[in-house]
Amino acid sequence: MKWISLGELAISVKNGIFVPRPGAEPDGVPILRIGAVRPMHLSLEDLRYTGMSLDEIESKDGLARPGDLLFTRYNGNRDLVGACARVPDHSPTLAYPDKLIRVTVPANEVDSRYIAYTWASSEVQTQVRSHVKTTAGQTGISGISLKSIRLPVPPMAEQRRIARLLGSVDSLRARRRKAMALLDDLTESLFLEMFGDPQYNPMDWPTTTLGSISDIQGGLQVSAVRRKHPIAIPYLRVANVHRNRLDLDEVKELQASQAEISRTCLKAYDLLIVEGHGNSEEIGRGAIWDGSIDPCTHQNHLIRVRLEKERAAPVYIGSLLNSTGGRRHLLRAARTTSGLNSISVSNVKSTPIILPPIGLQDAFAMRVSRIAQLRESHISQLAELDALFASLQHRAFCGMLWDSHAA
Fold first, then answer.
1. What is the pTM of this model?
2. Which of 91, 101, 183, 202 has the largest count of CB atoms under 10 Å?
3. Using CA atoms, how far apart are residues 342 and 207, in angstroms rounded to an integer?
4. Quick check: 160 and 146 in contact, CB under 8 A?
């Protein structure tokens, strides 16, 4: 098997250009955002503009052309440092910022799609992670380190064949994710069809506040002082609560007193609302607790809402608060302290609620349940595709996909 370093493969390795204040209005050459590079994927959404002409960008060698590889040089998320994405074949003319590194490979000798797919393999990422450093508060990787990473490189025909194979599976994964996103959109569309926009209440439903139809409770502060408490109990964090869904892959424990547990222990169908987040757009997002861990409590950056179910269906209230119109109150109420956006229990209690008949709320919940079943099916199929992709990626890395065909 032939192993070659990225530096040996590359024609050029170049840091991006510095643009003081990229603008949102079309002015000059568009420039990628720093977070545009994800493993194997380059986002061309929400571009900014340099205010500089094409000649100015070219004079700085700051263009990313179709087929080029872009690598994340710095990122606040350590796992994304050194991520690689290929510039699509039909990409518009783009500049790239100084926190990205552009690598150009000879198109007649190296298939950049193959490099992007291989770079995302666990074997290569183990090498990348060993070079990631934090200096002066910035987590990054140098161009010299990137160039030292070694990859298995088969003959060109095999690179193309492997890239096509991995690309086909990756395309199926992308379609599955898109279908899941459309199902998420379907839930909000169904809400608007049945109840109207809660901001305007066009169907003239009775209105109330969330506090008048529920018991609302803050959570437990996580600190070293907790070690003195006698009982270890699982607790939910902001990372566990997303918009209309839970992520329970990692649930931590804290120490608490019996009185604290009695006050904050969760019950199935409790609604959990994010109280504090670094991203202001994520304030107030919520999900319904499924009761799968018992007992379980929650930290103070989550607020628990226990509804009077004879008046308000949890699925209906959760969908309302996560809808575009229903989120406005909590987004406006958010305050920023030391970089953290937060809302209070009183903000949640005062959230305006439109309250249709409970029978209509329950009918909505049943339809949402069927959508959720479809989503679970897509999740299962996506997991199978992810496993297939990882297997193919590993086999390509080890030469199992191309040794018997190698020239």
1. 0.69
2. 101
3. 25
4. no
